[in-house]
What we know:
alpha/beta
Amino acid sequence: xxxxxxxxxxxxxxxxxxxxxxxxxxxxxxxxxxxxxxxxxxxxxxxxxxxxxxxxxxxxxxxxxxxxxxxxxxxxxxxxxxxxxxxxxxxxxxxxxxxxxxxxxxxxxxxxxxxxxxxxxxxxxxxxxxxxxxxxxxxxxxxxxxxxxxxxxxxxxxxxxxxxxxxxxxxxxxxxxxxxxxxxxxxxxxxxxxxxxxxxxxxxxxxxxxxxxxxxxxxxxxxxxxxxxxxxxxxxxxxxxxxxxxxxxxxxxxxxxxxxxxxxxxxxxxxxxxxxxxxxxxxxxxxxxxxxxxxxxxxxxxxxxxxxxxxxxxxxxxxxxxxxxxxxxxxxxxxxxxxxxxxxxxxxxxxxxxxxxxxxxxxxxxxxxxxxxxxxxxxxxxxxxxxxxxxxxxxxxxxxxxxxxxxxxxxxxxxxxxxxxxxxxxxxxxxxxxxxxxxxxxxxxxxxxxxxxxxxxx
Length: 458
């Protein structure tokens, strides 16, 4: 990460500026450029970045054996073009696995295999959205989802999240699609209450709106069994359920899936065929065997035990800091703590100071769309450099004074005035997000001690 002024060392990943005379330019309205990713940075000494699982826990020898068995002449018809919905054995394995792990009753025909969550969102947007459609996202929420919907010309509206989850009463009446993380709200970490889940489903049934349920890391639970997914609560004809193996296994697997209403399945498969044809059949076949042989369940149990210890250590250390309020969570790979003073400028200084000392973590404000819009770009979760840059860019904004997203609103996003039509508006909270997938139990204490010193000094 370098030394000195941390923000100066950020690799933005931006393309070279184009001259006005360039003969070929992106279409009108395309304002997107590459963002930093977690692989861009050297691994920090104390790594609390979000969204990164521990690769050292993964059974590489087993995975290598399974993949090698599928990469041969007479396996998976390598000379032909494959089924866009995914390898039949993997679709069946996913259906069985969901029945055991999430109590979701589906068949192989219900499963569409994707190259991960972002790919799934792209397919859904292609099929469901037209320019100008309103998409409601959680605020704070997952920036890559907002960014993708914006790229399709949707008007993206941030909807507040409270202790029970997404505030259904704040959803704009014209919403076409709601993107939510009910099992483990990202980034705050709370699960959506049962009452709020019913309210969201009831809201969707009264209008032509879809709910996208992103269940990104619920495999790792440290207490009671999770609440039933929205998709499994009675009538699922409004819900598209997304899953990924990027957290339960590794991002390199590049595999996820969608469960969709029957009325959308053919359209989604066609969208997959139109966009990239089909996935890696050898990897999908190996993953099917990995699931069916019990290897995935075994790996998840082992990883959960280790992650539970890290989760407990982080919660205990943060709870001992009187200036922080730890948000209760019982699943996933991160913990969020609010700064009681609500001073976002101070939170930015803490993140920057910790980064200079080798501690990488996220400033909570980077997950609020209004602040991202005001700075003109968004950070990719899991990128410590981007997080530090965002922290510096939003300094001076406090919790008591809502940021003015209108001043630098991203083209295609809903304005603050449109977002307030529902009568509520989310105000950015100051705080910190600590991932623990990429750290180690032996270094958590030292890393959090450095963070505590940065907190005292800021």
